[in-house]
Amino acid sequence: MALLQIDNLIVEFETATGWFRAVDGVSVSVEKGEVLAIVGESGSGKSVAMLAVMGLLPWTAKITADRMLFEGRDIQNISPAERRKLIGKDIAMIFQEPVASLNPCFTVGFQIEEVLRIHLGLDSKARRARAIELFSQVGLPNPEERLNHFPHQMSGGQCQRVMIAIAIACNPKLLIADEPTTALDVTIQKQILDLIMALQAKNGMGLIMITHDMGVVAETADRVIVQYKGRKMEEADVLSLFESPKSNYTKALLAALPENATGDRLTTVSAFFDGNPEPAPEARA
Amino acid sequence: MSNNMTDNTMLEVRDIKRDYELPGGLFKPKKIIHAVKGVSFKLERGNTLAIVGESGCGKSTLARMLTFIDEPTGGDLLIDNKKVDTRPGHLTQEMRQKVQIVFQNPYGSLNPRQKIGDVLGEPLAINTDMSAGERRDRASEMLTKVGLGPEHYNRYPHMFSGGQRQRIAIARALMMNPKLLVLDEPVSALDLSVQAQVLNLLADLQDEFNLTYVFISHDLSVVRYIADEVMVMYFGEAVEYGTREEVFSDPKHDYTRTLFKATPKADIESIRARVAKKKATAAA
Questions:
Q1: CATH no. for residue A261?
Q2: Hey, which residues does A73 pair with through a beta bridge?
Q3: Between A185, A187, A218, which is nearest B266 by CB?
Q4: CA angle A252-B262-A184, nearest 5°?
Q5: Antiparallel, parallel or unpaired: β A91-94 and B99-102
Q6: Reduced to 3 states, what is the DSSP secondary structure of residue A218?
Q7: What is the tally of structural domains in chain A?
Q8: Chain A contact set for B222 (CB, 8 A)
């Protein structure tokens, strides 16, 4: 049984000119311990699809799916109370902007202990001990002292480490990382990716890595979904995606990488791809 | 030797420094931050120098000094073999026109209440006595050059995508026919497919106008593609400086090596190695 199974997910938003389809019939499944990367440019609906799973979209969004199962349990029609029990405990998410996603008014210690209090019901001593353990696990120096710091007192990389610590606080079965390193420097990106991958391997979590960076995909994923304008263009394991991409869009993306430049100009996406989001037939299956 | 070197030198920087003073509080002493601690380089006409480094290493401060936005606290800045008097109020209009800048975030660098035509016409209105009609013609011409059309003249920035906005920012920088263009992370806010288009545009424009670029970036794959010379900055110092081949094939400084190691590798060999390694650990 897949850890997360979504069939034919459609997310629509109402706009002045009618309904806009941000995600159009995407199916995703993740096994336990598997790393799935979802790649696409901005506006391809990769984040929206995962926010729909988390139930974090505004009420104006219309979400429909044939099936939306987490560990075989329907998560589409569960009550908000049930969902709150699940989110943050069994399914956790790391967001793109680490500094913006922490609350500036509370210490990071308070914010991580809040999760432990609500989901695990630990008493204050146990919470503090666990928070220190988590902080040292994600490689924050002086974890005890760090608990009393506010987000603005830390760098972007450190804030992202706090976010990861909060996400893994309850040993989630599925971790969704939404562009976890986009706002960070290359050297810090490497550290954070190594950290996420080490935690993933250690805890055997399912991991969904949302990114637009082909380099990050190459370094982390087992399987890859390529998305464009809300549609799935291709799904393949990481090696065959880079070795023999099937859809024209994937070919175009890979050709546009500066390291694959031939001659003195880069290949642009339009050279391969006419902008028609009709997916390759094999991606539909 | 010095003679034929200087002939073609567009930009020369000698031991340039910039300190920022943090004012002290009641109990806090004054603090001086050395953002750029003495950087020197020479750049020839029509070439591209890439400056690489992590956030806070002083690369943007250097860009601000090159474009006279910030005044250096020490060192010399020579453009077209002429020493620039960087004191406020001493800068000639001619010098200002020679150097232009393109900023990182095309969403923040365009005035949302200004039409694109006015964005492009403004430098001409300030610096020249062209008539409104002439300015309009020049702006439309420039829009075509950067891959947009005259029909975009009357639109507002919010009607454009990120890549189009960056084209507009580049067009604005080119309105005064500059010789030196400082590009402060011009593609890091853009998607991969759009990034390729903008990089191609920059290469086309460089060929057409014989422009000299100072290209600031933290993306090594982009730098490897676009640069002739590379400088790596670390805590305000240039720790590595050489031609692209020198730096990429034989990095001297530890930090450069760390940087290369940290860059994700997207070639098939490394993916295969990683997948094999993972299978091996899973089986064990």
A1: 3.40.50.300
A2: A70
A3: A218
A4: 80
A5: unpaired
A6: helix
A7: 1
A8: 258
**CA nearest to B172, candidates B229, B75, B101:** B101
Taking CA–CA distances from A187, the nearest residue in chain B reads B262
The secondary structure of residue A3, as a DSSP letter, is S
Examine residue A271 and state whether it is found in any structural domain, yes or no: yes
Contacts of B218 in chain A (CB under 8 A): 185-186
Does A258 lie at the interface with B, CB-CB under 8 angstroms?
yes
Q: Could you tell me the domains of chain B?
A: 45-72+84-283 (3.40.50.300)
Taking the Cβ of residue B268 and every Cβ of chain A, the question of whether any pair is shorter than 8 Å is answered with yes
Q: Name the residue among B168, B193, B112 with its Cα closest to residue A42.
A: B193
Structural contact between residues A93 and A115, judged by C-beta atoms closer than 8 angstroms: no
* ipTM for the predicted complex: 0.75
Determine the distance in angstroms separating the CA of B275 from the nearest CA of chain A, rounded to an integer: 8
Considering the domain boundaries, does residue A144 fall inside one?
no
**Closest CA–CA distance from residue B17 to any residue of chain A (Å):** 24
Q: Tell me, what amino acid is at A18?
A: G
State CA A154 to chain mean position distance: 23
**Structural domain of A49:** 4-90+170-284
Q: How far apart are CA A200 and CA A35, in angstroms?
A: 8
- Helix, strand or coil, per DSSP, at residue A4: strand
Q: Is A256 on the interface with B (CB under 8 A)?
A: yes
**Tens place of pLDDT per residue across chain A (285 aa):** 789 999 999 999 988 888 899 999 999 999 999 999 999 888 888 889 999 988 889 888 999 999 999 999 999 888 989 999 999 899 999 988 888 889 999 999 999 999 999 999 999 999 999 999 999 988 888 899 999 999 998 888 889 999 999 999 999 999 999 988 887 788 888 888 999 999 999 989 999 999 988 889 999 999 999 999 889 999 999 999 999 998 888 888 888 888 777 667 777 776 666 666 655 444 444
Query: What is the token pair recorded at B146?
Result: 């950067």
Task: Please count the CA atoms within 13 angstroms of the CA of A191 that sit on its side-chain side.
Answer: 16
- Torsion angle defined by CA atoms of residues A192, A198, A201 and A204, in that order, rounded to the nearest 10 degrees: -60
Say if pTM beats, i.e. exceeds, 0.90. Answer: no
Residue from A107, A104, A63, A109 nearest A83 by CA: A63
Q: Cβ–Cβ of B271/A266 closer than 8 Å?
A: no
The nearest alpha carbon in chain A to B191 belongs to A41
Residues of B in contact with A258 (CB under 8 A): 195-196, 199, 219, 221-222, 224-226
Contact B224 A259 (CB under 8 A): yes
Angstroms from A36 CA to nearest CA on chain B? 13
